[in-house]
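Can't attach files on this board, so I'm pasting raw text. These are the components:
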Amino acid sequence: MNSTRQSRFDAIAAAMGHSFAGEILIGGDYVSTQRHGPQVFVSGQIPRVGTTVVVTGRVGSEVSLAEAQAGARICAMRALALLARALGSLDRITQLLKVGVYVQSAADFTQQSEVADAASALLHEVLGPAGTHTRTSVGVYQLPKNAAVELDLIAAVE
Amino acid sequence: MNSTRQSRFDAIAAAMGHSFAGEILIGGDYVSTQRHGPQVFVSGQIPRVGTTVVVTGRVGSEVSLAEAQAGARICAMRALALLARALGSLDRITQLLKVGVYVQSAADFTQQSEVADAASALLHEVLGPAGTHTRTSVGVYQLPKNAAVELDLIAAVE
Amino acid sequence: MNSTRQSRFDAIAAAMGHSFAGEILIGGDYVSTQRHGPQVFVSGQIPRVGTTVVVTGRVGSEVSLAEAQAGARICAMRALALLARALGSLDRITQLLKVGVYVQSAADFTQQSEVADAASALLHEVLGPAGTHTRTSVGVYQLPKNAAVELDLIAAVE
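---
Top answer:
Structure tokens for the assembled complex are below.
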């Protein structure tokens, strides 16, 4: 690809209508990212844009698969934005290692993998081969702030 | 033990009536295993044999404890099969570090640890002392493809 | 702070009326802690004091937010007690990396982050800056022994 990771991130952000810059600040007792040698841990991200969680509710009843996938993409963008800020550049990610996807599910909703696929595809699209990862997706009963989906990850970095 | 890890794996697989060879291929945006230096991450495994998820439904109502334990054992065998393929041999596992067990639970089912015990025992049986691990077991609301149980892990390797 | 990590741990334990010494022994196929080089993994802890799980039930209906927070603090103390035992001293923790908080939730309970905050604050209080961490908190459907909350973590150690 001639494009850079950052330019691909920016193009997706532009299509989403949000820059993912600046608002992702938490403080106090826990942090958004924690580096340990060549690994960076990223806290669970919910589909928040600015101060609003934009995809809420139970997937399979209140929330459609497509809406949940859009939410998963926002979570993935937030995780990338946090990594870019922590590392200075997305180019310092050598490999995603593990992605966890938690879907607030209706009792009979069994397409958690399909929700997670949307995040996996975005991570691969932005980072190229470094964006492939192992993954665990489960259907949980609730998520903070009634978020429809939450995503965390571990990345290897240079 | 005079037997080898692989021979113990093969004996269990034979008793289960399945080789766990060949069918565990996923591709594209995520992968079954990802190595990072001395650690290997394994994606969440559901009790799939060939192309069929063989233990589905909610544990404690539709699925018995014994059936869920059988499912957990299949998940563990799949994880071992993936590690063997990624590493060339089960003998290259120096220590399991962390196992996560996710049980699709009925509202009042509280024996998630007992489900996980079946996977832990199998891992210990095949790998010996290297098979002990830390563990987190939780009761989730749904799992991909209506699986009754899902298992992921992190292993230390040489 | 002039106080030591252990003295702060002891003060909290005294206020809780429990020493967290001695009873945290599991054996067999899985273990409470597993060290791998500079990382220690801690198994999922439920709010057990001695042999009793002291905060059980579904948060948001049977269990109040305050009770769940008390449970999360017990889980965090247990994790610290296990780390102290495994390492010889809490002073050998250089940084908490990742904390997972699993809250057995009522269908409409969305304050999983607030439950987790109680654990995060305690970890920070005892360990100082080394106690900050990334975090993922989710609402699960059930937990082992009907526990209201479960917590696991990964720590960096010297």
